[in-house]
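Appendix B, record 7
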Amino acid sequence: MPITSNGGGVLITGNAINWYAVLAAKHGGEFYLKHGMVVNRAYTPANLRRFAEQYTGKHYNRSRKGLEAAVKDLQKLLDTREPDEFERK
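Structure tokens (predicted):
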């Protein structure tokens, strides 16, 4: 089992680590779109679009619409796949 909880802690292993990375990137993109601020230096719009490309295989334009599309596609991945089914393309 890739995600286990025991005594208040959560252990994420295997491909579920990629699931967590996708979840964090999606939230970072949503935060940027809502507030116009990056969560940290790694979560710039360009890095978020590049990260989404690794999982979706699509290219996202360098614009707000491109980031919105990337966040939407990451959400689709999270909705349609189990945590242990996440792999980069």
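Remarks on this record: The two ends are 23 Å apart (CA to CA). Helices lie at 16-35, 45-56, 64-80.
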